[in-house]
Amino acid sequence: SVTPYNAMAFVNITLQTFAGLWINGFIVSVLCVAWVKKKIFNSNNKILLFLGCCRFGDLCITWVFSFLSIIYPQCFYVHPMPQMFSSIRTFLYFCNLWVSACLCGFYCIKIANFRLTFFIYLKIKIDRMVPWLFLVSVLFALVMGILDYDITYTAIVKNLNSTTLKNFWAASVKIDEHLHTMFLIIGFTLTTMFTVVICFALLLLFSLWRHKCRMQANSMRNLSMDVHIKAIKSILSFIFLYSISFTGSILSLIHANKMETLLMFFILIFQYALPVTHSLILIFSNPKLEKTFLRTL
């Protein structure tokens, strides 16, 4: 039977999904058309295109999973459906988070102005590093997907194979220890990624704010200063959204066994706010995308 929680969660996911699919599909289509026309594709557009594809896939698989959970939940009792869905969702979700982190780092290295030798070296080499960042992102997300597959297999399949009460209790103890270790690994990875993103964002924010203060001191109120202010607002928005997504991911690990609660409903909203809202911010931060977006509307 469909509970109020399931209905609320499904309506929320449906609204987020269709909004996110439209926004990210728009980014991907516009960038692809520009690539075909100009035959030139800079590193910034490559990251935006890859990020849009990851978020598009993430939203699609989340909606399909939610739809099947309500309409045909029996399919998740068939091996290996639960493991496959869970691992694919984790793979795409971590691709989304990792490429978002790469985009933040790319902007920091390209835009920020620091006189450190290593920073200058990265500024020169960053364009060549973008394909490698994509490869690392995919491999990293693949590892997380495999870990999630193992977690789901251990929690569901091995648990179902324990027939007697004694074997079931012994298996449950081993499963809890195994899941605890896996959750610690995923939690540590999420925390490390979040720390790196925040450091990059704060460095870029500090550099832009310092440059803005210099222009104000020299009474240089011009178009360049307005661009800097807009960039600062975009970075603050990204920090806020990434923090919300990180909080949702950590809470989903902590409350993994309490799925039918109001808390999990809000966690779901927090966790999938990033691929929808941040993509919209990226559109309005890019003059070409913004112009095309407004013309399309």
| Count of distinct structural domains | 1
Helix percent reads over 70%
CATH class categorisation: Mainly Alpha
Number of helices: 9
Which residue ranges are poorly predicted, with pLDDT under 50 across at least 5 consecutive positions? 162-175
Specify the CATH homologous superfamily. Rhodopsin 7-helix transmembrane proteins
Please tell me the overall pLDDT: 78
Beta-strand proportion: under 5%
- Form type: globular
Main beta-sheet annotation? none
Fold-level CATH name: Rhopdopsin 7-helix transmembrane proteins
**Beginning-to-end CA distance, first to last residue:** 40 Å
SSE class: mainly alpha
Rg from Cα: 22 Å
- Report the strand count: 0
Sequence of secondary-structure elements: HHHHHHHHH
Keywords: G-protein coupled receptor, Membrane, Receptor, Sensory transduction, Taste, Transducer, Transmembrane, Transmembrane helix
Main location: membrane
GO molecular function: bitter taste receptor activity; G protein-coupled receptor activity
Family: Belongs to the G-protein coupled receptor T2R family.
List the helices and strands and how they pair.
Blueprint: H1 4-38, H2 43-71, H3 81-111, H4 117-160, H5 165-217, H6 223-254, H7 262-271, H8 274-285, H9 287-296
Helix pairs in contact: 1-2, 1-7, 1-8, 2-3, 3-4, 3-5, 4-5, 5-6, 6-7, 6-8, 8-9
Transmembrane segments: 13-36, 48-71, 91-109, 130-147, 182-210, 231-256, 262-285
Family: Belongs to the G-protein coupled receptor T2R family.
Main location: membrane
